[in-house]
Amino acid sequence: MRIGIIGAGPTGLFLAATLSRRGHGVTLVDRDPGPTPDGTWRRRGVMQFHHAHFFRHQCAQILQTHLPEAYDGWLEAGAEPTQMTLPDGRAVMIGTKSRRQTFEVALRRTVQASPGVMFHRGHVDAIRATGGRATGLAVADGLVEADLVIDASGRAGRVADEVRPAPTVGGETGIAYVDRQYQLWPGAEPGPLVNPAAWQGDFDGYLSILFLHERGIFSVLLVRPTSGRDLIGLRHNAAFEAACRAIPALAAWTDPERSRPITDVLAGGPLYNYYRPQTGPDGRLPLPGLVTVGDAVCTTTPNFGRGITTSLLQAEELLRLIDEHGADGESIGYAFDEWCAGTMRPWVEDHVQMDGDLRRRWEGGDVDVTTRLPSDLILAAAEVDPTIAPVIGPYLQMRAGPSSLDAVQERARAVYASGWRPRWADGPSRRELAELVGNFAAEPSRSGVTSDG
Questions:
Q1: CA nearest 267: which of 236, 231, 303?
Q2: What pLDDT, on the 0 to 100 scale, is given for residue 50?
Q3: In the chain, which stretches have pLDDT less than 50?
Q4: Do 178 and 50 meet the contact criterion of CB atoms below 8 Å apart?
Q5: How far is CA 289 from CA 148, 206, 234, in A?
Q6: Given the DSSP bridges, would you call strands 198-203 and 259-261 parallel, antiparallel or unpaired?
Q7: 125-135: pLDDT as tens digits
Q8: Strand partners, 170
Q9: Which domains does the chain have, with CATH numbers?
Q10: Cα angle for residues 2, 4, 8 (degrees, 5° grid)
């Protein structure tokens, strides 16, 4: 079968390699030229490429199953499998510490070594259709004919907008973030952690997350509401560093004696949660033979680091359905739509509720015990009621969906009805942080970046 794939991100790369190994002819279209000879990779048009990522254990399992040489290449590039010891003494794998660039380079090299994949550098102008079915991709120098078209162009992809359904869940979250990458000095001990892969601090009006990557590299995120411009100055290096110094846990990690910055502050745009189905309001595929996958289907905020995992889980299921249905693009589309509705949509709905309630609480609202509690508050309530704890691990590891928390919903509500509230992490409030940031935002930022050799 001839397959045309739009987008050479993690989803498109994984599908290109695995489908070619099944004997399909794959053409992968992307306008990005890939890494330069010196290893740098700007990845224009992919804002999140250099931002923080967390690779859950499912990512490693999927690569080990389908593309073991890509997994080996990822490890050779420095990726670090990470495990956690549970209270009962059992050790479980929780993920792999790595930057997205490190992951994507290893995956891209595997695809480039796949003889059945043709890379086509350029822009897809349109999806061609004949007889009401997708039949190829119109590119600048002609037509890429295809029996199946896979749109892996991500949330910002626009080429299929005229023929794919609109999102049915979610939208802009009212939340934005900035982050910066650092690297520990050789031999330096890491700072405080919540678990072996990350630290999170919840503050009065904002939050901070620290994700570990490979070779001592880590990312610090500061996440804020977009309802005001009081923290917008965090995009400046000096203001970001001042904020880190004011938060004890971050001050420990970013102490110049312990680590050095290897990027400037990376400003992210507004964050979105959304779910886009394959079928329209009438329950039908708008264009049989076209399948949307990855971030084009499911996007969530980075608070729980689920993005790459949801994309690869989708890609693996789509691969299975292509194996099952062959060239029957219509059957593939309907079956994939049903799977995504049951498996991906709940994660988006989970984030929509969490982020909406978090934003409300940032603006001074109290915990509402009269409605269904969002997942983050259920997790926090385990500090008071330890009987809640057993459901937390499977949920956080994405081995059980958000509905798994329903069993402890009433217990968590009772905790909050008693008057207990989670304690803020040690650090300034939003108002205090805004005053601090305001002192630096007007100053020119000097780059404190050093090489990440």
A1: 236
A2: 81
A3: 453
A4: no
A5: 5, 44, 45
A6: unpaired
A7: 999 999 999 99
A8: 274
A9: 2-170+271-347 (3.50.50.60), 173-270+429-441 (3.30.9.100), 368-420 (no CATH)
A10: 135
